[in-house]
Fold these 2 entries.
Entry 1:
Amino acid sequence: MKNKIQSVILVGFAIFFTACNSTSTKKLDQYALIPLPETVTNQQGALPITSLQTLSTPQENSYLAQEITAFLQTEANLRLAWKSQGDLRFSLDKSLKGSEYYEIKIQTTGIDVRSASDEGLYRAWQTLKQLILLADDATKLPTGLISDQPTYSYRGAMLDVARHFFSISEVKRFIDFLALYKFNYLHLHLSDDQGWRIEIKSWPQLTTIGGQSEVGGTTGGFYSQKDYQDLVAYASDRYITIIPEIDMPGHTNAALNAYPELNCDGKAPPVHTGIEVGFSSLCIEKPVTYQFVDDVIRELADITPGPYIHIGGDETHATPNDQFIAFIDSILPKVERYGKTPMGWFETRASNYTGKMVHQYWANEGNEPQNVKKGNPIVMSPSSFAYMDMQYDSLSKFGLHWAGYINVRKAYDWDPKSVVPSLPLDDIIGLETPLWSETISDNKEMDYLLFPRLIGYAEIAWTRSENRAWEAYKKRVTKHLDWLQTQGVIPYDSPLLKAN
Ligand code: ACM
């Protein structure tokens, strides 16, 4: 009898443990986090999500606190109250090194997040957010430790709002994705041959005339300075810095059409709605050109809190080389005079400017860079690896292929410091993935080119190269695409993610 009771108890225990096991929380290092953190350490146990009742953040009414509260209410039906020592604690710890380094400690009783900076706390929150979004069992989190920091200090994306205009809400949606994947710069390509997208009060026709057109002949649009400041603030809440670009002296047909005096012959060229490049130039010899550039940079600097203004400088095939250099030499110091550091496409390295500037490498590999002076930061956007407007393959619905096809694996399997070994590698501060918009005009078309590739660029920019591997990434990114689809994103359906 005793034996029978014992065996019933044993069987009962066995069932109990099997049941526990089958619903047991996946371990912390099994989560499909992207970018992959530097170290993840598992511990025994789990934290029931509902035990999180209170939140503490360095400032009670910060954007961070609002984002956390709103997210947990929507995703986990939790209503967190703010408290100085909450169950979910975000705190600044100046003893930690590195501006974006963070630690997350998940215990059975609560979560501790620490960083030396508010920016680091925000990046940590993105990791926690992904743990909740990717959980198989959303009622608990596994215990353990995450410590993490980015490889590169510059993790950027570019959006071309000139070839096709994108509304403020479309750009905000893009910023939301950038934030989740820990990007920290958004470069806005605000002017090109097809349209001028930012209000300049001293030259109003730039937008009343130059803002109206776009590729294909549809109506464009522009941002008032107030709209732009709203975008800057939205990005800044998410620790993303906006870099405005006015492309000069080429890629200027929209400005030349709006103001005939900027042309050497004083005549306005027709509106350009095609996609050819390299035919337009501001008149380098006219004093009015320098007044124009000065006004544009001054007004832009006034509404841009970030450190950089991008002056373009690419594909100036319609500007004689000596004139191009004279022009760049004269405008780079203007950027500095208005308190900003200039940034330019790689052609601008030909300048004699001796101040600090950021060079953005964009040529194909094989097009070896000459004359790169050591000491200026370099951002890598190699077109045959990093351009999201390149087609995935010859069947892709959107995109171009002048720099080749970039499938999901090619987009992931490279490193900013290995693509062009002849560059001064120590000067490389990160990568930027541009999305040019000749072939796309709304969020749906944008998503096709962005996803899955954007997620891979995020990991290249953040995760140490020795921790990155295609096979493991392939499994993780698939989970992200599943989640993105629940958010209404229709990503490009890559055959490479299906193959074993
Ligand atoms: C560029 O792709 N023209 C920078």
Entry 2:
Amino acid sequence: MLLFKMNKDFISISHLSPDELELLLKEAQVMKQKRNLALLQGKTIALLFEKPSLRTRLSFEMAMKQLGGQALYLSPQEVGMGKREPIHDVARVLSRYVDGIAARTLLHSTLLTLATYSSVPVINALTDWEHPCQSLADLLTIQEKKGRLSGLNLAYIGDGNNVSNSLMLACSLIGMNFRIASPPGYKINEEILTQSQNFAAISGSKITLSEDPVQSVRGADIVYSDVWVSMGQESETEKRRMAFSRYQVNEALLSLANKDALFMHPLPAHHGEEISVDMLENPHSVVFDQAENRLYAQKAVLVRLLLPDNSEVASV
Ligand code: CP
Ligand code: NVA
């Protein structure tokens, strides 16, 4: 296995080069094959979460346990980041106790402040801007199911949000074609689009924006959906339900994609909203494999960031 040195933190999927992304995916596969590699014995990470979580919290906790280390969950009420104590003080205090921080923050700027002031690695466990750990697990799942990534067509139906931001960046880095269908007012962010187009110019991937889900899913190898109302947007629920009503992924829409298309969703899902009530049971659905793969993708990230010298990984 080749060696590479990641940045101190894992904030954005775009901070990886295409080669680094490929290697990280290979290492995630190794983690899946060898579940109890005690590479992080004696290491501890703090889970600093300002929003709820099932998958991310549990996969980080299990990842550290299986790697021989431990994870400590810190609730928002306890820490009161930015209220009880300034963010930069929280970062400096945690750096004296733990070897890494996985943070899920309401604002991306909070994560950036944590990373700036912390002397230990900071991992983005979801912000309002990106969800890079999710994209890593998504690519791992697609690679497993399709045997390749480059040249595949992924159609994302819905909100231009944290999940689509990371996914568009990841696809354009790795050479997958990324289509997104969103209603007016909910399109992908311009900055993310420009960055992705720059990556696509190198990788050869094609990026297509549309307002028409039907147009996007035709010929797609993967149909991807996420919630219409992300955490923190609850006050916009009714407005969003109306805006996205034509953007439900259901059997009829999926039938327009390629015959062997995968259906993906990061979960949690709102059944009857962004997906029809039976979508998770659809034979094309790989959502639970996708959820499982969060564990292996994050193990690869943790080992990269917490082992100062990655020679142990190389010898696996
Ligand atoms: N997909 C995901 O991040 O799930 P949680 O919000 O439950 O962690
Ligand atoms: N876009 C969703 C993803 C949840 C994993 C949210 O931010 O709530």
